[in-house]
Design goal:
This protein is α+β, with helices and mostly antiparallel strands and 205 residues long. Strands 1-4-5-6-7-8-9 form a 7-stranded antiparallel beta sheet, with no helix packed on it.
Length: 205
């Protein structure tokens, strides 16, 4: 393991003249994303894979630049840059419904897995966690661990498209009488970068 005292990232693999260099290296970014593959003069080069929280990109690099590859979501759905028609207006099926068929009427999936997460009262399902208006944060389904603070753009999507706890509509209406939704939105500042979940893509946000 190479000492990267100047960075919170980690590298395990061959080096040359103090730079990452060789066919079998592993670089772990601070956010947990991992690259495994070739390096040249400190840059990604040759065959390699990038493993993200929601899937894996397998591709090739040329002196640090992506030269081609394929991203596969964790559920097996392949992503394509051109003619992306998954869960489009013409065909709203989830990937699991492509693979296993559509369930009978009355058993329609609201998520790709078909598993309905347990939402706290008044909270919204955002696909990779739930949004709690009282904390103004997105939390993990099972543990309640804080995941992120939504941007203004994501809050707008949550307000208009995200499912809410069955008992939450009445609860939300009461809350809006006390504190308008606009005040919740105004209290959250835009965050750097983009953190779109696959769920947002599926819902057309």
């Amino acid at each position: 393991m190479t000492d990267l005292s100047f960075s919170t990232s980690k590298f395990d693999g061959p080096t040359h003249n103090g730079r990452f260099h060789g066919e079998a290296g592993e670089y772990t970014f601070a956010d947990g994303t991992v690259y495994r593959g070739g390096f040249k003069n400190g840059m990604f080069h040759g065959q390699g894979t990038l493993t993200f929280e929601n899937g894996v990109f397998e591709g090739t690099w040329d002196n640090g630049r992506e030269a081609g590859g394929q991203f596969i979501f964790n559920d097996g759905l392949p992503f394509t840059k051109e003619n992306w028609n998954y869960c489009s207006v013409k065909d709203r099926r989830f990937w699991s419904e492509y693979a296993d068929g559509i369930k009978p009427a009355g058993e329609t999936n609201r998520t790709d897995t078909g598993i309905k997460p347990n939402l706290p009262k008044g909270c919204f399902d955002v696909g990779n966690g739930y949004y709690d208006p009282t904390t103004k944060k997105v939390h993990e389904y099972d543990t309640g661990t804080e995941l992120r603070k939504p941007s203004d753009e994501e809050l707008k999507w949550i307000e208009t498209k995200a499912p809410i706890h069955p008992a939450g509509r009445g609860w939300l209406a009461c809350q809006l009488l006390v504190r308008p939704w606009s005040s919740w939105v105004a209290a959250v500042q835009p965050e750097a970068g983009e953190n779109r979940s696959k769920r947002r893509l599926l819902e057309g946000g």
